[in-house]
Amino acid sequence: MAPMLATLDHIVIAVGDLDAATEVQARLLGRRPSWCGVHPTYGTANTLFRLENVYVELLAPRGSGSFGGLLTEWIGRRGEGLFALAFGTPDAAAAAQEFRQRGLSAQDPAEGSGRESTTGVERRWCNVFLPQAETRGITLFAIEHRSAADLLPGAVPVEDAASAISGCDHVVVRTSDPDRSSDLYGRQLGLRLALDKSFPEWGMRLVFFRIGGVTVELAAPLTATDRESEDRLWGVSYRTANVEAARRRLVREGFDVTEVRTGRKPGTRVCTVNGEPSGVATLLITHD
Fold it and tell me: What pLDDT is recorded for position 1?
């Protein structure tokens, strides 16, 4: 029996200055925010950008609340960057039970809510968190949405859709122990293994897991001698319909972007956004 995970629902980027990060992310994605909200009981505030297959969440401490304090401590220790992966499930209680059957000490489902700052619209959900001691230091959780999907509208392109980011192609997890991490994402989370291959010319072993049309990529150096206890969420590859048009837009917006080049995957063209916006290594990709 596989855990009831259907999608990569959203990625969470921890930031200190939410307003500044929202401005940068809007220029990066070429889209206006879908949601600007607060979590009064958590002590956090967020900005959401809903793309075709995931939504991107910028999360910052705001007000009082234990989770906001934990987020402040995390940013102080690591800096801004990818903070969590949230996997979509149709049944949080069933997902928690299946996690436990696969050896993960899942917390009991916890209800949550958020309120949009300008409209007052409220969305509700139910989360199942996994202990970081069992996820190699990465915040992973399942989310069951309890509100209508259209309460979170798609992020509208600022210019033409061809130059905007359309979705997430893959997220990258850096690991020094790909066998243990593969067991976590494959056997315990139930993601489908799509590739496990060493590339001596790059000095890397890459392991790809697929869920809902998105790849979770484990990247491990072949020469690693120490097996560190923690993995690290590192980068995101965003899809765009026209990588040349997207690059031109980003250059106009002041980003430092490499020239477009042929991707490692056949039939792709890519470019890299230098400087790691909001602490996230960022690649743009077009599939021909």
Answer: 44
Task: Report which of 225, 142, 109, 106 is spatially closest to residue 177, judged by C-alpha positions.
Answer: 225
Query: Looking at domain 7-151, which of 3.50.40.10, 3.10.180.10, 3.90.1300.10, 3.30.930.10 is its CATH number?
Result: 3.10.180.10
- Contact (CB, 8 A) for 218 and 206: yes
What pLDDT score was predicted for residue 61? 95
**Distance separating alpha carbons of residues 82 and 199, to the nearest angstrom:** 25
Please say whether the beta carbons of 53 and 168 come within 8 A.
yes
pLDDT for res 225: 67
**Residues contacting residue 285 through CB under 8 Å, at least 6 positions apart:** 169, 237, 238, 239, 240, 243, 263, 268, 269, 270
Domain ranges of the chain: 7-151, 161-287
**What whole-number distance in Å separates Cα of residue 153 and Cα of residue 92?**
23
Topology adopted by domain 161-287: 2,3-Dihydroxybiphenyl 1,2-Dioxygenase; domain 1 (3.10.180)
Predicted pLDDT at 187: 95
Q: What is the mean pLDDT of each run of 10 residues along the chain (288 residues)?
A: 81 97 98 94 94 98 86 94 97 96 96 91 96 96 96 95 97 96 96 96 95 96 79 97 97 97 94 97 96
DSSP assignment of 242-258? -HHHHHHHHHHTT--BP
Give the model's pLDDT for residue 227.
Answer: 73
Burial of 209 (0-12, 13-18, 19+ CB in 10 A): buried
Find the angle CA(180)-CA(170)-CA(267) to the nearest 5 degrees: 120
In the block, residue with structure tokens 């122990």: 177
CA distance 283 to 237: 5
Instruction: Please check whether the two domains, 7-151 and 161-287, share a CATH topology.
Output: yes
